[in-house]
């Protein structure tokens, strides 16, 4: 049987992703599992400008590569060196994505088993201060010359690989290079144990960076499948590469239902504001309904921009939603339009009409403002959504009070509910917004059997 051989690869590039960037230098060291048996390296003409920041890191200039071969001219040699060998690199998915993309551009279809020396070192030599190539070589007394050049980094990685083979008494790397191994897909800095602990249940998952800061929060119907989907495929955008490189740990929280997971995800993103969460951030309310009293004693209602952590009577995604509500309240409670503020012309929104008539009686007017506020705040529904729990011994509970999300939690299955104050004791309070309420109302309409309405009759409160 032919001995397994390894192609230890390092590349330098014009940027961080294979779609828009190109290789400027490549080095390939062939290892037979015992020693290095071949070595090849070359500069590559990327056919595009090398940014100053890349030059500062690698020292490779545009002048150095102008006479170098373009990748098409070396593609057959690269393909020959990589064929039937395990592709080895420090942070393997980065180098692999570039090489595969360049070979495809040259018309060569190629795939290979992969081995990441970052992941291998984490398993075989746990507890090191850092697993970056420079610091790892320093800790293990490996000579690293020409740092951030393909030849120097490839030679150092080959020495590291040889050391790992010597220390790998449990044949960890044999398992890692199997095509079916999950190791092929996981981010380089993520312990496999973090992924293995994920259950096949609905919930919320958290990705952490090397400083133990949450960088992404997601929800899932099936935690293990959803997290695995982040790591599969061959997308090579810079956002994806930075995202995967930032993941050092995963934790999770199981939820009783998908709705509970959705609401927890929204609340946690709002509180922690992770750097890689983009989608839900755009649902932040931008405008609010405010009430204030002027120096002359008259009370006003106004729709205006909402500052962070600013309190208001209601929030809106658009100023026009707020204007429509305020107009309806003004009409219903006969509030003088001069006491309703709608922004300014500079915002592209109309202002109050110019009316110089007599002002209403201050007490009557202020009572009308209070009546409108009381009506709006108290006319909105209060109800609970009671559904499946995380186990058969509990039920999930979402409480909406006066049209706003109050909180959520879990109740014992044998708990008899007779008063909403009982429910609140078991819930974690959460901040409400329009997006969350849309989720809740949509779920309530689709699953009316889970909705329990608060009714008031002779001062007795009950759920039905």
From TrEMBL:
GO annotation, biological process: DNA replication proofreading; nucleotide-excision repair
Stored SMART domains: EXOIII, GIYc
Entry-linked InterPro entries: DnaQ, GIY-YIG_endonuc, GIY-YIG_endonuc_sf, GIY-YIG_UvrC_Cho, Ribonucl_H, RNaseH-like_sf, RNaseH_sf
Domain named GIY-YIG: residues: 200-278
GO cellular component: cytosol
Pfam families noted in UniProt: GIY-YIG (PF01541), RNase_T (PF00929)
GO MF terms, alphabetically ordered: 3'-5' exonuclease activity; DNA binding; DNA-directed DNA polymerase activity
Function, as annotated: DNA polymerase III is a complex, multichain enzyme responsible for most of the replicative synthesis in bacteria. The epsilon subunit contain the editing function and is a proofreading 3'-5' exonuclease.
Description of how the protein assembles with itself and partners: DNA polymerase III contains a core (composed of alpha, epsilon and theta chains) that associates with a tau subunit. This core dimerizes to form the POLIII' complex. PolIII' associates with the gamma complex (composed of gamma, delta, delta', psi and chi chains) and with the beta chain to form the complete DNA polymerase III complex.
NCBIfam families (UniProt xref): dnaq
Name of this protein: DNA polymerase-3 subunit epsilon
């Amino acid at each position: 049987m032919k001995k397994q051989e390894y192609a230890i690869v390092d590349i330098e590039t014009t940027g961080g992703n294979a779609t828009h960037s190109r290789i400027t230098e490549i080095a390939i060291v062939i290892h037979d599992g015992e020693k290095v048996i071949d070595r090849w390296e070359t500069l590559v003409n990327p056919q595009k400008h090398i940014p100053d920041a890349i030059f500062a890191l690698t020292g490779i200039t545009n002048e150095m590569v102008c006479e170098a071969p373009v990748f098409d001219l070396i593609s057959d040699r690269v393909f020959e060196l990589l064929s039937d060998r395990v592709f080895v690199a420090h942070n393997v998915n980065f180098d692999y994505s570039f090489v595969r993309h360049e070979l495809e551009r040259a018309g060569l279809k190629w795939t290979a088993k992969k081995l990441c020396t970052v992941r291998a070192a984490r398993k075989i030599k746990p507890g090191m201060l850092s697993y970056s190539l420079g610091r790892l070589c320093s800790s293990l007394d490996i000579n690293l010359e020409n740092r951030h050049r393909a030849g120097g980094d490839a030679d150092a990685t080959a020495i590291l690989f040889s050391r790992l083979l010597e220390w790998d008494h449990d044949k960890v790397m044999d398992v890692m290079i199997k095509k079916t191994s999950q190791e092929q897909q996981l981010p380089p800095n993520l312990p496999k144990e973090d992924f293995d602990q994920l259950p096949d249940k609905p919930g919320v998952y958290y990705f952490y960076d090397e400083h133990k800061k949450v960088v992404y929060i997601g929800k899932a119907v099936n935690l293990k499948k959803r997290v695995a989907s982040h790591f599969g495929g061959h997308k090579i955008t810079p956002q994806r590469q930075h995202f995967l490189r930032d993941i050092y740990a995963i934790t999770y929280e199981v939820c009783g239902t998908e709705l509970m997971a959705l609401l927890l995800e929204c609340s946690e993103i709002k509180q922690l504001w992770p750097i890689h969460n983009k989608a839900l951030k755009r649902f932040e309310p931008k405008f609010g309904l405010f009430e204030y009293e002027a120096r002359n004693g008259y009370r006003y209602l106004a729709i205006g921009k909402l500052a962070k952590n600013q309190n208001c009577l209601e929030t809106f995604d658009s100023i026009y939603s707020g204007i429509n509500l305020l107009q309806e309240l003004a009409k219903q409670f006969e509030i003088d339009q001069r006491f309703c503020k709608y922004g300014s012309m500079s915002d592209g929104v109309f202002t109050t009409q110019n009316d110089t008539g007599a002002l209403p009686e201050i007490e009557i007017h202020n009572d009308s403002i209070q009546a409108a506020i009381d009506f709006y705040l108290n006319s909105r529904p209060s109800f609970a959504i009671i559904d499946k729990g995380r186990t058969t011994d509990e039920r999930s509970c979402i409480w909406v009070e006066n049209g706003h999300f109050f909180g959520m939690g879990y109740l014992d299955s044998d708990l008899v509910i007779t008063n909403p104050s009982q429910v609140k004791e078991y819930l974690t309070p959460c901040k409400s917004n329009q997006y969350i309420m849309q989720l809740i109302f949509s779920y309530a309409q689709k699953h009316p059997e889970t909705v329990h309405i608060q009714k008031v009759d002779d001062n007795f409160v009950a759920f039905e």
